Amino acid sequence: MRWSAAHAGPVSLLALFAIVQQGPAPGVFELRLKSFRNNLGQRTTLGKCCSGERPASAGGACAVPCRTRFRVCLKHYQAKIDPSSPCTFGDVITPVLGGNNISLEDTAPVAEDGFTNPMRFHFEFTWPGTFSLIVEAWHDNNSSRGGGETLISRLTMQRWLEVDKNWTPHEHKTEHTVMSLEFRVTCDEHYYGTGCASLCRPRDDRFGHYKCSPEGERVCLSGWKGDYCSEPQCLPGCDEHHGHCNKPNECVCHSGWIGRLCDECRRYPGCQHGTCQKPWDCLCDESWSGLFCNQDLNYCTNHKPCLNGGTCFNTGQGLYTCTCPPGFTGTDCEKQLDDCAHHPCLHGGICKPDNGTGSSRCECPKVMGPFETSATWTTGPAKRRLVPGQRPRVLRVPAKRATRARTARCRSTTAPPRPAPTTRRRRLLSQFLVNATLAISQDLNSRDSIVYLCV
User: Fold this and answer.
1) Which residues does the UniProt record annotate as the domain DSL (predicted)?
2) What CATH number labels 203-264?
3) What architecture (CATH level 2) is domain 27-192?
């Protein structure tokens, strides 16, 4: 396509600027020449042949055919079209396309000498819907385009035209010429809507993620939202107040919130047996207390610390006490008492633990003499008692019913016949037995009974 400022009238700098400045634009006005017939080969205005001579007879054909070229001028709407005013939307001057009869129906888009059909007029503004059009046929007297041109025919029109891909046909007739053409207005790529006013350029970058509908509306790609599809769609269910996302299908929690959907509050660091209703809470579970809910208020039930049958009592704040059964001691009743250490044997007796009962027993020393005897004194959980030997007899009397051992009545012990002791030996034996009886009775005086050793 060749653009030219040479035509029958002056072209202003504004029109020239509109012609030269061609670049990305919202839309384009297209005009396609289909055919031109000049049957007589005469000029329109003077009625002469294109060669300058008059025809041989009135209404006769000229001997030499015209060299026909066209000028197309597109401008804003004018109620009265002025062919000499600037072509504000642009103008085109074609090379010589033929003689008297020209048919461009089957012409390729790019023809000889750079001419393109249809001719295109780009506009960098919203299409106003109205326009004025001038199409002129000229005779070129020589091969130069600088001058020597004679007007053959002129078409002028103004009208309303909406953006549409369909062509609008038009035919212009004069006394001896017929010009056939069609035109349309379409939006360039990425422009849509009435007047090509909506720009929608598909993109998938940090400025947006969308494609365009046939109406020019942005259609967000999967995982994006917003007017310009620049906001990622978070993981479905992600709490919009406590989480966000930097890319589709993720859920990044704000401080103090956790969980796949950021809908769980974070407990206070170190909280052991508690929950939260808002971030950094530590609301203690039942039976727990303290800043970190780590103090057990029901320690006895949860831990059962008392051993060996001890009874546990909660004392609060995770504390407890154990009441131990007889024979055991310690914080958790874990220690068995040593009865021999707490109740030692007297008068040379030997204390021996009674395994399994927590008690002990005393083995008393033997009494040497004519009535040889031995006894064992048992202590602990069993009642204290004196087990007699073979010969002495033990009399157990409640303490409140007796005062001194010497007043007790003892029946004599049956013994096998022996030789009668001498008077001196009797006196010594009697004194020993009385002393032993008094010693035993004095030792047990604080208990619930007195034991007498009788002879």
Assistant:
1) 185-229
2) 2.10.25.10
3) Sandwich (2.60)
